[in-house]
Amino acid sequence: MISCGSTTKTINPTREEQGVMEFIFDAQEQTMRCRFPVRMDAVNSMEAEKILDKGIKEITAQPEDIAVIFDLKGVEYISSAFLRLCLSIAKGVKKGGFSIINTEPQVMKVFKIAGLDGILQVS
Amino acid sequence: MPGSYIEGRDRVMADAGTAADGLMKKAAMAAGIFEMLDQEKTDHIVKKVFEAGFGRRVKLAKMAHEETGLGVWEHKVLKNVLATQIVYENIKDEKTVGIISQDDITGITEIAQPLGPILGIIPVTNPTSTVLFKIMIAMKTRNPIIIAPHPKAVKCCSEAARICYEAAIKADAPEDCIQWIEFPDRELTQALMRHKDIALILATGGPGLVKAAYSSGTPALGVGPGNVPVFIDESADIPFAVENIILSKTFDNGTICASEQAIVVEKKIAAGVKDEFIKQGCYFMNREEIKKIETIAVDSGTRLMSAAVVGQPVGKIAGLAGIAPPAGARILMAELDGIGSDYPLSGEILAPILAFYVREDFNSAIKLCIELNYLGGLGHTVSIYANDEERIKQFSMLMNAGRIVVNTPSAHGAVGGLFNRLNTSFTLGCGTWGKNITTENVTARHLLNIKRICRRRSNEKWLNFPKEKYFDEQINPYDLMREYHKNH
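Predict the joint structure of the above. Result:
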């Protein structure tokens, strides 16, 4: 679901049994908050990338002006594609405007081992 | 005792390379003679060295305490006991000479051979015990050893080495099988580290020294720093946990690198745990007091612990910082909000100072333990108090540590032999996380080159398989596998 100001748009992921992806844009805060299913494998990550890419373009012509928060509560598995997505989003939005929150311990450890906890804001 | 140590400061200072050559020539000769000893003679030497070191455990402990000004002499006695009696019990029956195993089914026979001269680098925090330990395992494996003590622990280390050497010589060990440096010099240590004839460096010390050992090009087993997080789960017996943590953290005023550095608890049990620490004599500092302790406990330049507090009692540390905890306070507790450079007490401090963290739930607590583990203590030791097996498993799966001690004082637990069946050791491997090749407690068997005689035991499957089929890529791989595993 993408909710932009008073306009709400729903985008369903293909595999709802694993949980849904949710993208909510707060126009006042200029912040996109994203939630993900339990397994962010390659398929889900690519789907999230497409949705985000399209969604951000619909919201603004200047993505470098917005912030993005990935809320990983409940996400138990992430793939290389998801790490790439994180890096790509961090590059595209405003400087320091990308953060990853509510990680499960095993997911946080992936960011640590990958050395991305120093580049991205992960908590 | 001809030439068992460097006899003059001038000679060392004049030319480190020449001095290193001199030591190495003697060590090489000792290595040659060592090769001729059988298991019985080797074990006799080890027994005599054990008896000598064990017999002087109090003298050496008092010397170490007096010379270094660190720790508690009675605790250093116990460390010397651990390094002699408990290590002896641990290694005495191990085969380390000649054929050590033979398997007629596999056809493999293992033969143990010494590595060659070892350089044993000794820290200021556990000087005599580390000397005794390294000599014990070197003798058991017929390796000559050169002891390079920390400059502030030269006398006690030299005396420990001398006692062992005299006992070894009386037991017919090769001349110069144990040497020691009476006038420590950085250049000499580096020259020895790089010497072509040194087989292994057993490096215990600060990060700089361990890094120098690894950079020398000589194989090294080094001990990285620790930063031990302790998770107390809601399923733990809290008074028991607190009692054990205090026992460990106050042992020798916290000089063991496997001692606890931070307590992590969930919010729902935090008040109870805190009360128990207070009840058992620990003092929770206020924010101002924490600031004052930070100033003296951590070097503002290096961000590492300050030598002024290492191995010191609470009273002295409090005096240095200008704070006044209650008389007899056992540990200075610092409740912190975060970790890293903004929270200097979140790193390793080998003194009775302990960080304390409260987190909302289990997941947040475990995440903090991971962060602490990564803050300078990777590969070393972590600790958990819990009676919930699932949580012990979850915690263990996520920590990068060679030792995950459960319901055990971590300083005593990590060194092995007292609260568990780990090998008793003063050299705790930290795996590749700590730039080591092993996560094990280093012991005698790590100081051997194992040769393997491999007698012919043909792989019948391989012999019966028509090899020409491997050259045809059109054949389905699973058909090849089926053919390979066919019973003829």
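Helices of chain A lie at 42-59, 80-92, 105-113.
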